[in-house]
Write a structure and sequence with these properties.
Shape of chain B: globular
Distance between the termini of chain B: 36 Å
Helix content of chain B: under 10%
Helix content of chain A: under 10%
Number of helices of chain B: 0
Order of helices and strands of chain B: EEEEEEEEEEE
Strand content of chain B: over 45%
Structural class of chain B: mainly beta
Largest sheet of chain A: 6 strands, mixed
Order of helices and strands of chain A: EEEEEEEEEEE
Oligomer: heterodimer
Radius of gyration of chain B: 13 Å
Strand content of chain A: over 45%
Amino acid sequence: GQNIDQPTEMTATEGAIVQINCTYQTSGFNGLFWYQQHAGEAPTFLSYNVLDGLEEKGRFSSFLSRSKGYSYLLLKELQMKDSASYLCAVKTTDSWGKLQFGAGTQVVVTP
Amino acid sequence: GAGVSQTPSNKVTEKGKYVELRCDPISGHTALYWYRQSLGQGPEFLIYFQGTGAADDSGLPNDRFFAVRPEGSVSTLKIQRTERGDSAVYLCASSYEHGSPLHFGNGTRLTVT
């Protein structure tokens, strides 16, 4: 099976930087996704990593280390609208269509 | 363009009743997924379709749950003899092909009383 861990909640100030960590234990790892979910809304795709390293997309960056079973999502220049839950999800080779999600990290941005 | 559409947005039913939840994926997306999400949790995989066939139904909790996608587009999730523990938000997602990022609908909030 898979075990995906991420912190439950993080609080940061507008304009600051926040790093959300995700660790996973799985066999047949085949990629990691980050999704953003505002309360009462659908998850929306943020980033995808399958190789080690950093992927940068505007204010958001995602990092992966396959050997350590570790990823992080970095949110820079935080805005109030970034207050949301951030979900880490792992894909494995034994089921191409299935994503295993973590419980999500609730980020609260304060003025 | 239109995103993934799910109906109804809310459904309240009594324990023991039968319900159907509908998903209309993004046009041209061959892969369709059903997940369910409880409060404070991440989405939990139920079933995945590639075209008309269920490629992986390992997440369906028991035989009260069934899903179809007869023409490779719209899908219906069917729950028989509903139980209070079935209460959750049922999310549908589609992707251009398996392995591509999932595009989620806004979900159907099912409440079993």
